[in-house]
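Summary for the steering committee. One of the milestones for this cycle was to obtain a three-dimensional model of the protein with FE-MO-S cluster bound, which we needed before selecting residues for the alanine scan. The sequence and ligand used are listed below.
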Amino acid sequence: MPMVLLECDKDIPERERHIYLKVDGEDTRDFLPISNAATIPGTLSERGCSFCGAKLVIGGVLKDTIQMIHGPIGCAYDTWHTKRYPTDNGHFNMKYVWSTDMKESHIVFGGEKRLEKSCHEAFDEMPDIKRMIIYTTCPTALIGDDIKAVAKRVMEARPDVDIFTVECPGFAGVSQSKGHHVLNIGWINEKVGQLDAEITSPYTMNFIGDFNIGGDTQLLQKYWDKLGIQVIAHFTGNGTYDDLRRMHKAQLNVVNCARSSGYIANELKKQYGIPRLDIDSWGFNYMAEGIRKICAFFGIEEKGEALIAEEYAKWKPQLDWYKERLQGVKMAIWTGGPRLWHWTKSVEDDLGVQVVAMASKFGHQEDFEKVIARGQAGTYYIDDGNELEFFEIIDLVRPDVIFTGPRVGELVKKLHIPYINGHGYHNGPYMGFEGFVNLARDMYNAVHNPLLKLAATDIRGETATPVKEAAE
Ligand code: CFM
C-alpha cells in the first residue's frame, strides 16, 4: 500500500491519505496525497495563516511601501523580521512596518478611525514614502472594519499617495496559500494597468515568484542585464509598488514560484495576452534550461549560450568540488511546497545528493504531481506534516541534513542532525549558478560540521546520524 499510516498517527487514521511512499514502477498520479485541505483536528500544523501568505510572503517584500497591519501588534511582529528579503535601498521593508496596535476597546468600538489616524501618522513620519498596503487581520475582519473606505478617505486627503488593500485575515483559508491568491488577484484587478512604462530594450519581461531571499533577485538581475532584457516588474523581490502597476507592459511573464504567483501570471495572460513561461531558478541544469527558454522566446539564443558558458566556466569547478564530497548525502526537504519540486532533481543531478523525504506545508495537487514525478522511489512525500511525524520519518530514512525552517530546524538540531534554513537560507543567495554553489557549500559545511563528531549519540540513545567523511 503506497499511502502510509505512521505509528504516531494511529489515532488519526485520516493522516494516512497525506503521506505517500513512492514505489518503483507505480503510476504515481493514482496516489497523490490529499493537499490544500483543512488540517485534521488532533494534529498540530506547521502551517502559516492566510494573512501571513499575503503580507510576509508577497506584499511585505516591496522596498518602498509602508506595510500597515490593521490588528493587534503580534500580527505585525510575527511577520516583520522572520524572513530574509534584502533590498538595494537599505532594507526599508525591515525597518518600517506599521501596526494599528488594536486593543480591546478598539475591537469593541471599531477600529476604522484608529486605522485612518495611523495611516496619516505613517505618511507624516516618512514624507518620502507615498505607497502603502493595508492588511486586515482576524479581529479587524471579524468586527467588519471597512479598510477600503479608510484607504479611499486617506487617498482623497493626500492626492500624492496610493494605497492597496488586502482583505485576507488569518482564517480566510487553510494555509498561507490563500493569502498568495488573494493578493495576486487583488493586485491584477485593482492596480495593474495604471501606469505606463519607459521601455529601454526590445526585450521586456516580468519576473514573477521570486522574493529576493538572501539576494536571489539581485543575483539573477545580473543575468538579465547581460542579456539586455529589461525587467518591467519583479513580483516582488526587491520590487517597487509602481513597477508592479506596469506589469501589463511586459512581453513575457517568467514564473519561478508557480504556487505563490502563478495566479497573477495566468491573469496577465487572460487579461493582457502576455505569455507565461515557467522556469526553475535553482540548480545549474535548471538555470541553464531557464535561460535557454527565455532567450529562445526573444530570439537571442547566442547571447544565452555565451552567458551560460561564462557562468559554467566560473562556477562549475566549484560545484564539482562539492559534488565529489556530497555524493550519497541523504537530504530531507520540509518547506512550503514548490521548493520540493524545484530542488529534488537539481540536488540529485548537480550534487549527487539523494532526497529521502519531502514535506509540504501548503502545496496543492499540482505541486505533488510535479514533486512525485521528479522525486525518487523510496522517498516519503508528506502533506501538512507535524513534528511527531517528522521524528518518525527521521527514524525511517535517517537523513544527513534537513532543509527546513528554524522552528523544525532547531528541534532536529537537538537530535544532532544538521539543518539548513530552507526558507530564508543560511548564506544565500541560492538561485542561479553562483547561488547553487552557495547552497552546496552550506550543505557541505552542515554535514561536515566537526561538532557533530563530538555528538556520539543522539537523544534517543542511538548512534548519531553518520557524518559523511570527506572524499579526499
Ligand atoms: Fe513560493 Fe517562496 Fe515557496 Fe512561498 Fe513560503 Fe518561501 Fe517556501 Mo518559506 S513564495 S511557495 S509561502 S518559493 S516563505 S520564498 S520558502 S514556505 S517553498
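Key point for the committee: Residues 464-472 have pLDDT under 50 and may be disordered.
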